[in-house]
Amino acid sequence: MTRPSAPPPENQPSSQRPPSPRVPSPKAPSPSGETEQLRATAEQLREQVSELEIQARARPRIALAEGVLVERYRLADAQAAFTLLRQASQRANIKLHQLASAVARTPGPAPGARTWFSGRAPHPLPDLTALEAGTLDASNQGEVLGAALHRVLAITGAGMGNVQLVEDGVLRMVKHTGLPRQFTDYFAFVDGKTSCARAASSTTQVTVKDVATSAGFDDERRRVILAAGSRACHSVPIVDDEDTVHGVISSHHDRPLTDFTQAQLHALHTTSRALGTWIKWHQHTVLVDALEDLHQLALASGR
């Protein structure tokens, strides 16, 4: 039997050793791959910052509402109050922070009352035919806001736009289409130095014919708007039948604008008035119904 040969000793000359297997060196990332990775990381960071800002703005209102509910209904803790708020907001299909704000600003029910708003007069549903959207679920805020935005874009001939509602003195973006994430994150909350803020404060329609040359934006806002592909914009204040401003609808255009016709401006005003009157109805009906439901849920939880 042939004996197997022993492995070469470590001190054997390298010329007599079998060659070592080659280990491929790691490839350096290509410039394009590195750029894409940096872009993805930046996008992720922007999303995190936007989400943190939303939470930071909403949390004080929610915490205040939790405190009110804990004291009013003798709840075990803030978590129990939060659970009731979340349940009532989901049943009414409204945002939790909207319900929390209503809890904090609305006088509470009488001590021991079985109902919060007994004997309230119903508010008639406003006419939404100006939105030209066919049959709408009037209690669904997202559906109505989406229809109004679609109508404004049809009138102005734009492919991009957004809806902002007034919340605690600032404009909060609640609906948008055709706009990139960087734009919607950057303008999630607006309190000045934009056409939409000027439209809200002046209660008049504002047209920016060319974002690139307009004096109405600082350099950073101008850069974000242009990067979104918006070269011009038109902002329409959302007003109700008592001229209360509830927000702004803006269209964004991929090329500089000329003046709109009087027929277009009138149609935009009619659309905004219909939406504003609906928002007032929603606040006095759907939101109040949600508060009443919250009251009933809280009473039931203490049984």
In short, what is this structure?
The chain is of the alpha+beta class. It is 48% helix and 13% strand. The model is unreliable at 1-17 (pLDDT under 50).
What does this structure look like?
The chain is α+β, with helices and mostly antiparallel strands and 303 residues long. 48% of the residues lie in helices and 13% in strands. It has 9 helices and 6 strands. The longest helix is centred in the first third of the chain and has 43 residues. The radius of gyration is 29 Å and the shape is globular. The N terminus is likely disordered.
In N-to-C order, the SSE pattern is HHHHEEHEHEHEEHH
Helix fraction bin? 40-55%
Distance, first to last CA = 92 Å
Tally the helices: 9
Key terms:
303 residues; alpha+beta; 6 strands
Helix-strand layout with pairing:
Blueprint: H1 31-73, H2 78-92, H3 96-105, H4 141-156, E1 160-167, E2 170-177, H5 181-186, E3 189-190, H6 195-202, E4 206-208, H7 219-227, E5 232-239, E6 245-253, H8 262-284, H9 286-301
Antiparallel strand pairs: 1-2, 1-6, 2-3, 4-5, 5-6
Helix pairs in contact: 1-2, 1-3, 2-3, 2-9, 3-9, 4-8, 8-9
